[in-house]
What we know:
This protein is mostly beta strands. The chain has 3 helices and 14 strands. The protein has one domain (11-199). The protein is elongated.
Amino acid sequence: MKNFSIGFLLLTLLCGCYSGTFKYVPSNSNLPITKSIEVEKSKDSTWNQLVAGLSSNFFAINTMDNKSGFINLSYAVDPEQYVEGGELHYTVRDHSNEYLQTYNFPATRANVAYQALIDGSPHQLNRQVDLRGKMNIVVSEISPSRSRVTVNINYVLNVNVSGYADYHETLSLISGEFAKSSVDSVEYCSNGKLEEAVLALVR
């Protein structure tokens, strides 16, 4: 595996006829994530509405038990919609500035082709990110006409870079937590939109 140094600080590499810069801009999103709501509906009514909504969306229900109010399901979604990771900025140019390529993209974008300066020369790279995981949902009764829905989500990010430099990394995080890449120092966190998508089914 070819290694190239990247981090939070702006790095400038001057080799041969080319110069290159890399900059990682972390996400400044640190909003509180809502994982539980109460609704003015009976437990059975809430359960039925939730199951109907989940079945018509991108979720695959693994197990569910009406008596306990427990649901376990799997999902696979666009990572850019549901996970924050900041932005990656790459620039490659020659010393005469006649050649210039700049690439700016979110770290959680599903598929990106870009160039980076490695071993003194620009090389084409392809970066792919996919997001899948599982979540647990519990519907509990507060009173005959009021219930609570709680969702806990496990996020699994698979990051693959191919081309002149190749690496693969899998990161796992739960709602409201950060996971930091050991390869490029990118920090990932959920943005709460997947939790909201589930809770919206019973609002």
